[in-house]
Amino acid sequence: MSVAALLHSEWLKIRSVRASFGSLIAVFAATQAITVLVFATVGRAEADNGGDPVFGAFYAVNFAQIAAIAFGVTAASSEYAGAALRISLAAVPHRGRFYAAKTAVVAVASLAVGLATSFAAFFVGQAFLGEYAIGLGTPGALRACVGAGLYLALMALLAMGLTFLLRSAVAVLSLLIPFILIGSFVIGDIAGSAADLLPDHAGQQILYQTPTGPIGPWPGLGVTALWAAAALVAGWRALVRRDA
Questions:
Q1: SS3 label, residue 136
Q2: Average model confidence (pLDDT) for the chain?
Q3: What pLDDT, on the 0 to 100 scale, is given for residue 99?
Q4: Beta strands in the chain (DSSP E)
C-alpha cells in the first residue's frame, strides 16, 4: 500500500467512526458555544477587572482540550474494537509504518481543527467586548492563537499514545480527564513548582500575554511536546511488542 493510500485509509477510519469524528467536531463546536456563552454574559465585566486579556480570550480551551483528548483516545481505541487492529495489520504488516500513518493523520487533523478553533474563538469572544476588545496585533495574541492550536494537537497525540499503551479508552479517559481538571492542581498544592512541568500547566503558558510560571510560552509548549512524544514512543513500543 502506498503512503498516500495508507494516509487516506487512516483518514477514512476517523471519518467513519462516529466517536472520533464527533470528538473532532466537538473541539470546534463546543469551544465556540462556550466562548459565546461566557463572553455574552461576563466577558465585558472580566475585561474591566484588568485580568490577562489574552489568556481570558482562550477560556474555552479548558473545555476544548477535553474534546481533543477524546479525539486522540477514540482514534486509537477504534483499532481495538472488533479485532480491527488485526485487519489493519493484515493490510499494513509493518507496524511502525501503520503507527506513523495514524499519528500523522491524527496530528494533521487535530492541528487543523485546533488552529481553526483558536482563531475563531478569539474573534468570536472579542466581538462581545466592545471598547475592551483586543486584536491580533496585541502583544501575545497571535502567539496565543497559534499556540492554542498546537496545544490542542499535542493533547490529542498524548492521548493517542497512551491509548495504544494501555489499550483501553476507558482507562485513558479516566486517567487524563480527572488529571487535567483536578489532579494537576492537587500536585501543584503539594509539590509546588513541580506542577509547572506538567503537560497542561506548561503548555498553557503559551496562552498568556504575560506567562505566570517560570517557563516561557514556547519552552512550556515544548514541555507538552515532550510529554506527547514520550506517550507516542511508549504506544509504539507496546504496538510492536504485543500481539494484535
A1: coil
A2: 88
A3: 94
A4: none
Residues 6 or more apart whose CB falls under 8 angstroms from that of 134 comprise: 53, 54, 57, 126, 141
Sequence-separated (6 or more) residues with CB below 8 Å from residue 106: 14, 71, 72, 75, 156, 157, 160
What's residue 11's pLDDT?
A: 92
Taking each helix axis as running N to C, give the angle between helix 95-126 and helix 217-241, from 0 to 180 degrees, rounded to the nearest 10: 150
Helix (H) or strand (E) holding 131: none
Tally of CA atoms within 13 A in the half-sphere of 200 that contains its CB = 21
Quote the CA–CA distance of 192 and 224 in Å, as a whole number: 18
Residues 6 or more apart whose CB falls under 8 angstroms from that of 49 comprise: none
d(CA 184, CA 178): 9
For 64, the grid coordinates are 476544548
Q: Which pairs count as long-range contacts for 88-94, CB under 8 Å and 24+ apart, including other chains?
A: 89/244, 91/1, 91/9, 92/1, 92/6
User: Roughly how many angstroms between the first and final C-alpha of the chain, as a whole number?
Assistant: 20
